[in-house]
Amino acid sequence: MTLFKLERNAEFEKLITHLEESPNPDIRKRSAEILGSLESETGGTNISHDEVVDSLVEASKADDDERVRAAAIDALDQYGQEALERFIGELSEQDIDDVAEWKKAQILARGLNAEQAELRMAAATGLGRIGEDNVLSQLVARLEDSDSRVRKRAARALARVESPECVPALSRNLHEDQYDVRVEVAYALADIGTQNALAELVEIADDDDEVLRRIAVDALGRLGSVEAVEILAGALSDETEMVRRTAMFSLVQLLSEAPSNASHQVREKIVDELEEANERDSVQPLIEILSRSTETAQRRNAVWLLGRIADDAFRTEAQDALIETLADDDEMTSKFAATSLTLLDGDGLEQRLIKLVETETKDEEMRVKALFVLGKIGGDRSRKRLSKFVERTESDRLRKRGFSAISKLGGMEMPSGDLA
Length: 420
Known about the structure:
- This protein has 420 residues and is mainly α.
- Helix content is 70%, strand content 0%.
- The protein is built from 25 helices and no strands.
- The model is unreliable at 415-420 (pLDDT under 50).
C-alpha cells in the first residue's frame, strides 16, 4: 500500500512500521511527516497517542538520517508541548514535568546550546510553543546557529512569540541566509505583522523566487501604505498566477486595513493603480474573489472596486459577477454591488435587469436591488415595463421598490386610449 493510501486511511501501525524499519530514508521521512499531519485522528484508532509519540521520539533521537530526525521533531510539534518535552527530557536527561512555564522556558533555553542539533531544534520549537519572552535573546541568538535546521526553527519560534524586538535580527537572515531559512524568516515577519516587520518584506516583493514574492505580497495587504499599493499593483502582472491572485487579494484586504488617517489616500491610489493595470490582471481576480471568497470585507471591497475599474472588454463579466452578488447574504455587500452596477451601464444591462425583475423564480432580494439599479440607469423602456410589473406583482416589497424606481424615471406609464 502506498504512503498516500496509508495517509488517506490513517493507517498508524503501518506508518510507524515504515518509520522504524524502512531502509529508505525518504520513506521514513515522509512517514514521520504523515504521522504529524494525522495527530487529530489518533482518537479514532487502535493506536494510542502515546504510542505514536514514542515512535517519533525514538526517530528524533536515533535515526541515522538528519532529515528524518528533523521531520520527526516537527511531527512531535504537531502532538503538542508535552510530546516535545518528552523528547527533550529523554535527550537531556532532565525532568521538566510539573514546572512553571517561565521556569520551563529557562530549562528549554539551555537546550539551545546543546551539542546535538536535534535538541537545539526541539528546544527552539518548544520555546515557540510556550511563548515566554524572557528567553527571547537566546532564541534570537539561534538565528546564527551553524545548523540551518536550527535557524529555521528559531525563526518559526520567534513568529509564535510575535515580538517586534526580533525584527532586525530576522531581517538579516531574510537577505543573507540560504533559501529554506529565508522562506521561514519571511513567514515569521509576516506573522509578527508590525509595520517594521512588513516593511522588511517590501524588499523581497520582486525576488527571483516566486514563493518569497508570494509571501511578501500576501503580507503587504496589512501594511496600509501607498508604497504597498504600488508594489501590489505591480505584482498583478507577475509571471506566476498564484502571485497575481495573492496580490489582488492583498489589495482588497488593504482597503480594510488602511489606517483611518490614510484610508482615503490609499483607496484612491488603489483605484488609480488598477485603472492603469492591464484589465485582465485587475478585473478577473476581483471576479474570482466574488466567486470564491466567503470573507465579508473582501467581498465588499471587491464589488466596490469592480464598479470603478471594469471597462470595455470585461464590462459584461463584471456585470455578471455583480448581478449574482445582488443576493449576497451581507446587506452592505449587496448594496455595494447595486451601486457598482449603476457605474457600469451599457452592454444591455438595462434589459438584463428588467428580465431579472420580471422572473418570479429569482431571489427577491436580487430583484429588489435590480429595481434600485434600474431607477438609476433605466430609460423609457424600464418605465413602461415597470409600470406593468408593479400592477401584477404580489410582493408588497417589490411593488414599493418598483414605484420608487418608476418615480425616478419620470412617473407611471399612462394607459393608452380614452380615459372616459
